[in-house]
Protein 1
Amino acid sequence: MIISLETSLAIENFINNICFITLFMTMLFYWIQVGLGQFDFQKNYFNFGFISMCCTNFLLFFSLILRWKSSQHFPLSNLYESLIFLSWSLTCIHLIIQFVTKTNWIGCITAPTILFVNGFASFYLPAQLQKIGPLIPALKSNWLMMHVTVMLVSYAALISGCLLAIAFLIIYSFTKTTDISKTFIVSTKTINSRLIFETQTDKILQNLDNFSYRIIGLGFPFLTIGILSGAVWANEAWGSYWSWDPKETWALITWLIFAIYLHTRFIRGWSGIKSSIIASLGFIVVWICYLGVNLLGKGLHSYGWFT
């Protein structure tokens, strides 16, 4: 059965709208769960958030496959396609984290970000940037799948890890600047309630720091491989391994920030507040590297974006 391009795009648009709705509902469900004090998977309890995120992951994957079939090339040739792929990668990272850690509160941090990325791609980008177009000569290479896929997976992992670090800073600041005893009704159970609250908060902070470190440690090798594969591809396409293009320069800055993060944890034994500050800086740098540089519309990586 042959599907026309118009029908394919209509189906893709419908899928993206469904994804936005499911992500919004997923985010609300995670917030409600945590608000009710359900931080972990409950036995004999239907976890709507996890199931909904699985459905979103499948729908985004199907959307990418559909676009691949319609365009006849790997769907990473412009900003819209890369954002959809980033959304799918973020859902994969989320599902892995939640499955391994058996915690629900992770969704309160990751779901809003995935919703924002998906909404930005589906509703903010102009229709011209969402259209399927032919590949320019520089992108007609097998390196497109290798380099761009690995870079976006690294971005997804690094963004997820940095989000946990930012959450660490927010919760840490709240617990240190707020008189926790005032948040409970004064009674004979006040002391016990405070101790339970502080114990649970300390556990969450420890998990945030640990998960952030592990996820960033996963994303850093992908970032390294992505930069190296990009250098090889650049030599084939433009005759130079490195040309100090704005995207290349910020990719190097991103690599250095996270190299410093891992170095201070490995060698200096940093953890907690110090590491989270570096990771929070890395969060900003990743977004500058991915989106901010392209707002300039300059350099060898500016095609198919905001030009």
Note: Residues 180-189 have pLDDT under 50 and may be disordered.
Protein 2
Amino acid sequence: MCCTGKCARLVGLILLPTAFICMISNLLLFFPNGEKLRTNNITLQVWLMGGIIGGGLFMLCPSCSSIRAGGKGCCGKGCCGNRCRMLNSALSSVFGLLGSLYCSCVALAALVIGPKCEVDGEWKYPFEDMGMNNSSYLWNQNLWSECDNPKNIVTWHVALFSILLAMGLLQIVLCGIQVINGCIGCICGDCRDSNDLDSQL
């Protein structure tokens, strides 16, 4: 039998690093190719901060709550304490679902529209009308040379927003699992005995 508390702890321990990965990726997007750009030359989706807010800060609460659900918490020991922590982790994971959905949507939009870059002396989105069909810049790397400045902006944009999209989708799955797991733990309790609980944080 799989313990709901152990499952919650595992989910939390995976969610926590994904939150930091999202925040770091979003911060790097402000400095394409390591360059500092003027505010109005940075891609709009970077300013929406899906990685910092949605996949990052929004994810800290459910990750910590899930980790605590797998150990001793402020609700105390025993059946009631376990159920209280599991309910709290389930509710926090719903909050995390919203953040991860926001992160994923922003990242997907950024990949579809493409980066803002300098083309023939003008800053614009050269790929925004291509969509996701076979003519998209994502499938035709020969189009990437249209961006004159910053250097490697398309590679930077695609790589980091792909990371944000992957982390956002992973967070959606994990938060969904924890919502179900937390509800089961709240209703049925945790299968671990008191000795197992005492060995946790």
Note: The CA atoms of residues 97 and 176 lie 7 Å apart.
Protein 3
Amino acid sequence: MSSSFSVATRLLRSCPTTLRTSQYRLAASTSGRLSTRFYSATADQAASADDAKPPPPASESAENDLDAKLKQKDADIAELNSRLKYAQADFVNLQKISAREKEQTSLYAISNFARDLIGTVDVLGLALKSVPAGALSE
């Protein structure tokens, strides 16, 4: 493994510096074979962008403008939170009303079915009474 590592090190040192640091890096794997790993150049650019210094402090008027914008955004957030809570409460109420109406509808449907069934049973009972007893035994 040490020989493959030394080969990788010599190969790395022979590459141009920019190629070695930003795009390709060779590493010795545990089995002793060399493998190529690819790294994007955007990671190096992102790291250098993070190291950038913050902008200089703003003037008093800019700070006042930012404070006014911040207060406006806070008011917008409070108003949107209020609207969200009202919408959530309306949704919960709608669920409760729907459940109650569903229950009432099922009870009403059963009562209508029972009312229709009672009328049919009455008519069937009258029909059986009108049939002579001898005809029923046949």
Note: The first helix runs from residue 2 to 14.
